[in-house]
Amino acid sequence: MPRITIGGRSVPQLAFGMGTSWSKRGDPALNRALVDTIKSAIGIGFTHLDCADAYGTEQELGVAIKEVEAEKGIPRSDLFVTTKCMKGTHDLPAALAASLKALQLDYVDLYLIHTPFNFKSADEISAAWVQMEQLQSQGLARSIGVSNFRPKELEVILKTCKTVPAVNQIERHPYLQRPLLTELMNKHGIATVAYGPLTSLRKATGGPVDGYIATLAAKYGVTEDNILLRWQMDKGIALVTTSSKPSRLEGYLQTTEFTLAPEESAEIDRLGAQHHFRAYLVGPGKFTPEEQD
Predict the structure, then answer these.
(1) Which DSSP letter does residue 88 get?
(2) Nearest C-alpha neighbor of 107 from the set 68, 79, 128
(3) Is 111 a known active-site residue?
(4) What would the pLDDT profile of 147-192 be if each residue is shown by its tens digit?
(5) Residue 188 in marked binding region
(6) Of 55, 111, 175, 252, which is the active-site residue?
(7) Assessment of whether the complete model's pTM goes beyond 0.85
(8) Can you give the pLDDT at residue 210?
(9) Plot region of 279 (φ>0 → left; ψ -120 to 50 → alpha; else → beta)
(10) pLDDT tens digits, 219-234
(11) In the 8-state DSSP scheme, what is residue 87?
(12) I want to staple 17 with a disulfide (CB 3.0 to 4.6 A). Which of 207, 240, 249, 274 is the partner?
């Protein structure tokens, strides 16, 4: 599987995510179906694993990691585990301690501030990042980063940080290409991890990329999902994907078997820029629907 570098470590570009339809939203019961799906995902090669305290699925990931080590001999060190803090951003040590307990782990490979929306000022953002740097220095998080941060919030961190965020995990797809944000992140060596990469197919059908994506899928003998994933992978972006169906996860791995021609990627860029759509975190105190960066 193609890889990118995050925090000095080579990481598979395709990650298995435990959000969206897997989110438990306060249900404390163990979701055995998710545990088994995580184990299946690891078994077919998804060693980059993405969860968050807000999803309520850290418990399942922890159980799956223990079971694949016991049953298949896959050690924890072969896995790259990401989790995120949504609500505990003013006491990140306590938030990470709770996540590690749920995960049954001594450390995570990547710890993210899930959104900037709980902060009321630049000073609060800066203070939170100091805590993140301390967690990294203590070895509790091998790398640290953010999620859903816009240029204005990243700039706050970049002004005073000792450690530049390794990652900004953002919604990104043909209809939300984030050019200003991408330029800033590239300038400072901040890796892009995209969630919602299939949004144009799942939530925004009927737009200008549909016909071209279908044409490319027929040309390469793959699915339209594969084309959308490959479009971003060719740009060096890691992608969070998910499914409850092992067959679909196996299908995502076909994305590694071809590359798009530069002119094909550029055409997706061009067509996608003709339409704007944001699927996640839209509402009062969050993103406005028309917001690009």
Answers:
(1) -
(2) 79
(3) no
(4) 999 999 999 999 999 999 999 999 999 999 999 999 999 999 999 9
(5) no
(6) 55
(7) yes
(8) 98
(9) alpha
(10) 999 999 999 999 999 9
(11) S
(12) 240
DSSP assigned state of 13: S
Contacts of 174 (CB under 8 A, 6+ apart): 200, 207, 209, 228, 231, 268, 269, 271, 272
Q: Measuring CA to CA, which residue among 133, 173, 123 is closest to residue 153?
A: 123
Q: What are the start-end ranges of the H helices in the chain?
A: 32-43, 58-72, 92-103, 122-137, 151-160, 179-187, 199-202, 210-220, 224-233, 246-252, 262-272
Q: Contact at 8 Å (CB) between 277 and 204?
A: yes
224-233 and 210-220 helices, crossing angle to 10°: 90
Q: Are 145 and 8 in contact (CB under 8 A)?
A: no
In degrees, rounded to 5, the angle at the alpha carbon of residue 145 between the alpha carbons of residues 124 and 25 is 80
Q: Domains in the chain, please, with CATH?
A: 3-198+235-258 (3.20.20.100)
